[in-house]
Amino acid sequence: xxxxxxxxxxxxxxxxxxxxxxxxxxxxxxxxxxxxxxxxxxxxxxxxxxxxxxxxxxxxxxxxxxxxxxxxxxxxxxxxxxxxxxxxxxxxxxxxxxxxxxxxxxxxxxxxxxxxxxxxxxxxxxxxxxxxxxxxxxxxxxxxxxxxxxxxxxxxxxxxxxxxxxxxxxxxxxxxxxxxxxxxxxxxxxxxxxxxxxxxxxxxxxxxxxxxxxxxxxxxxxxxxxxxxxxxxxxxxxxxxxxxxxxxxxxxxxxxxxxxxxxxxxxxxxxxxxxxxxxxxxxxxxxx
Length: 288
Known about the structure:
By secondary structure, the chain is α/β, with parallel strands linked by helices. The chain is built from ten helices and seven strands. The protein has a seven-stranded parallel β-sheet, sandwiched between helices. The chain is globular and about 60 Å long.
């Protein structure tokens, strides 16, 4: 029961990874406010959690994180029903339009940025306002491979996820003195409805390389949702206190971290986004 006595908001929690995170949080004793845009799937998830974990408080609020008024209502409801809460998981996300930047629907591209980036930023703003007086809090942003690799064909997803990681690093420094940890999670290659969207678009839109990779992940089953969900539990718990401003991979990084590894991480730029210069690759280029 690593989260017993704690309360969390989880966005995009009706299906896929968000649902898996909410389930793991409930299993670890956390009270929950879950949200998503689709009322039917959200109500189904809330009932499932309430029946499976009868001793756990589970509330739900239909929310479009791209709309500030919706987010305001979500946090008002969470404060009213949960009282003080300690954890925010920004999981809500979409791939956005699939195809070349000169051909995709521009409104859909902007909408993906609004959901993936601005929605997470505004939710973080609201959480920080509530966490600061308590001098404690945990904010977890779901990022992924889009933050560290070019993804032709899904540029809005790639751009928003990269921006979210740099936002994570920046806000972590802003709120460190208030004992608020802010981290990003790369859950691995997941086989969810988003994967199906990419495969349905075909190699002509997403590129042969990405299509081949996603087809392989789909055939092999991808990274289990439990990996990312368990990492979120760790980052939401007291066990990870002091780990902040990092992009941590569920399947690749050696979490939970020992105290020695925590000290090494804190004193370095490990698990952060940084520019690679020529000397990093053994090149000696004099500036002319």
